[in-house]
Amino acid sequence: MVARNHTQRGVRGVLLLTLCLVLTACVAARPGPGPLVDLRARSDEAQAACRAQPLVSYVARAKCLNDAAMIAAPLNENPDLFRRALNARMEIATRVDKKEITPEEGAKQYADIEAHLAEEGKARLANGE
Question: Residue 22's pLDDT band (boundaries 50, 70, 90)?
Fold first, then answer.
């Protein structure tokens, strides 16, 4: 019975050591702050490039801006709010292209949505969510 107890401890020790090594490898493989800052810079550059292109349609511009924003998506603390903003951009662009609203009205609506989502993000942070 004593030998069995030592064998069980040995197996547990090996499993624990293996688990620790795997977890250490996972943590070591995570990018540091440098690559994260690079994601933000790349996203900003891509968005600037979208805005510099001639306007073909508002939907095309919105798609370009959304694709550029997705570069920095891993940095976003509230992925659901981020997706809502991207979806709102496309919905508004579609309505502008259909001439249901003016580009100025669309820009105002999008700014209002962004402000609302930013407030919701701040409230979550304040509530520890």
Answer: very low
